[in-house]
Prior knowledge:
heterodimer, A: alpha+beta, 29% helix, globular, B: alpha/beta, Aspartate Aminotransferase, domain 2, Aspartate Aminotransferase, domain 1, 7-stranded mixed sheet, 3-stranded antiparallel sheet, 10 strands, Se/S_carrier-like (chain A)
Amino acid sequence: MRPKELCFLVAFHTTTEALALEEAARSADVPGRLIPIPTQITAGCGLAWRMPIGEKEKMKSLLTKCDLKYENIYELMI
Amino acid sequence: MDDPARVVFTANSTQSLNIAISGLFGKGDHVITTAMEHNSVLRPLYRKEAEGMELTIIPCDEKGTVRYDLLEQAVKPNTKGIVCTHGSNLTGNLVDIKRIGTFSREKGILFVVDASQTAGVFPIHMEEMGIDVLCFTGHKSLLGPQGTGGMCLRKGLEIPSFCVGGSGVQSYSKTHPAQMPTHLEAGTLNGHGIAGLSAALDWINKTGLTAIRETEQKRMRQFYEGVRKIPQVTVYGDFSTWERAPIVSLNIGDNPSEDVCDELAVGYGIATRGGAHCAPLMHEQLGTVEQGAVRFSFCYFITEEEVEKAILAVKEIAEAWT
Lengths: 78, 322
């Protein structure tokens, strides 16, 4: 099994929201990437943004600054 | 539009107009449209009419311009919206959508615009023009691949799902997601086509809408001035203004338009469209139901020399086929 680590995650209502966040994060140099949404969050399909837990404040301020839409944020061992 | 979530991708304008018309209007509602419309507007409206929706079609004058003076009297207590094109695909005449949008706002009714003939050439500002739904196709002046199109919805307007199913999210929900644009985008989209459309939009933005429009209108004007004095030629539409979509539709004498179209292709290598143009009421108003019309379309890449060749071709055919 792949070793797990504590991550900061953002889940979305739609793929459009996920792509908007990806673009905003890249242009603001906020680390992370889109991943298949972990089953701990939902058994459904879709994408989530995964990033190191230590960088979470950067994402929180980006979410506010860019008024990004998302479903929820999580801190999970994945 | 400043919110990408209000932009929905579809296969073309027809699909967008079906989503808008079928979702917004129903039995007991009254809707106004114009005689300039393409079948992509008319047929969804006729279908609704058969289901109990009331429909009023505003006629055009002899030049094919919509009779704005008849708009006010067309409104009824149950009028729910106006659906119309921004420009005729047969004559190139524009509709003053800001005027109709302002009128719609004053009356508190919806305004759905078919921008198939104008998106990519003319600036369209939904808020300033009072547009609630703007439907577009990717394959005309937006220069994208066929099978791409979409619709822009003003903030706050909701349209019921036309189609439900695959969404890529919320798999275990029995209902399709309510969030835009997924709400109106069931099933896998034409991703590679949309990538092509995106590249085309980059080119349009780089080149500039004004430069594109001015070049196209210049070519249209050159062609119009060249053919209008040929005795056998009848040109359709309102050329009292150059603020029009860059097309010129004509006939040569009584010759069937498809024969002229074919001769232009075979004899001169010029691609036009002949026959009927999916705008039956416009043909009725122009008296071209039987003959159809030959449509010349002028894009940014057509040169002055090519326009001269086209004028000469029309002259030669007119002289030979009299």
